[in-house]
Amino acid sequence: MNFTSIDYIIFIGYILGIVALGLYVSRDKKGHEKNSNDYFLAGNTLTWWAIGASLIAANISAEQIIGMSGSGMAGGLAIASYEWMAALTLIIVGKFFLPIFIEKKIYTIPEYIEKRYNTTLKTILAIFWIFLFVFVNLTTVMFLGAKALDTIMGNGDGTLLVPAMIGLALIAAAYSLYGG
After folding, report:
1. How many domains does the chain have?
2. Cα dihedral angle (33, 34, 36, 42), rounded to 10 degrees?
3. Measured in whole angstroms, how far is the alpha carbon of residue 120 from the centre of its chain?
4. Among candidates 110, 128, 131, which has minimal Cα distance to 119?
5. For a tag on the chain, would you pick the N or C end, based on fewer CB atoms within 10 A?
6. Is residue 159 located within the same domain as residue 70?
7. Which of 68, 92, 107 is the endpoint of a domain?
8. What is the model's pTM?
9. CA-CA distance, 24 to 154, in Å (whole number)?
10. Does residue 98 sit in the same domain as residue 147?
């Protein structure tokens, strides 16, 4: 299975459309200096449904789309319980904890740990989560995304894995650094 010209046009158009939408939504407003509130909380301008959608979208990646689909095929629908529970948990977080975090001007979990405990624990937690995210979660997600692209765009023999991982990393980094 190989991509045809129309497939490439749609794929590249989709990527460009998402990047353009992100750039448009996060454009600079005249007379406004961006700060961490703008980056982490969208300047407190999001509605409840947008926050909920953002929480769910932030938890969905190739890990869920590919990994859980494969696990569901192998072991049945029980694997979906993980995501059903995550949806319930996010509703509880959004309803009960998010208003407290916004009121206290807490943008991140390490910031909460610092206010609740101390700076040393915040630093330890932040370093731990960065390493865990980079070396466990991010590598898994990049590999699974590259595997999907290799299967769809190539012949599935692994020749596109490294270029696909580099491409995914560059697109994700550019999008995230700009505030997407």
Report:
1. 2
2. 130
3. 27
4. 110
5. N
6. no
7. 107
8. 0.62
9. 33
10. no
CA distance 43 to 60: 23
Q: What is the pLDDT of residues 92-120, one digit of tens each?
A: 887 888 888 888 888 788 888 999 999 99
DSSP string spanning 108-144?
Answer: SHHHHHHHHS-HHHHHHHHHHHHHHIIIIIIHHHHHH
Q: What is the 3-state secondary structure (H, E, C) of 63-100?
A: HHHHHHHHHHHHHCHHHHHHHHHHHHHHHHHHHHHHHH
Instruction: Report yes or no: 160 and 151 within 8 Å, Cβ to Cβ.
Output: no
Q: How far apart are CA 26 and CA 175, in angstroms?
A: 11
Cα 52 to Cα 47, 76, 79, 81: the distances in Å are: 9, 28, 22, 19
Domain that holds residue 52: 41-107
The helix (H) or strand (E) run that includes residue 167 is helix 161-178
pLDDT in tens, 7-34: 889 989 998 898 788 777 777 677 666 6
- Both 50 and 98 in one domain: the answer is yes
- Residue identified by tokens 């961006």 is 34
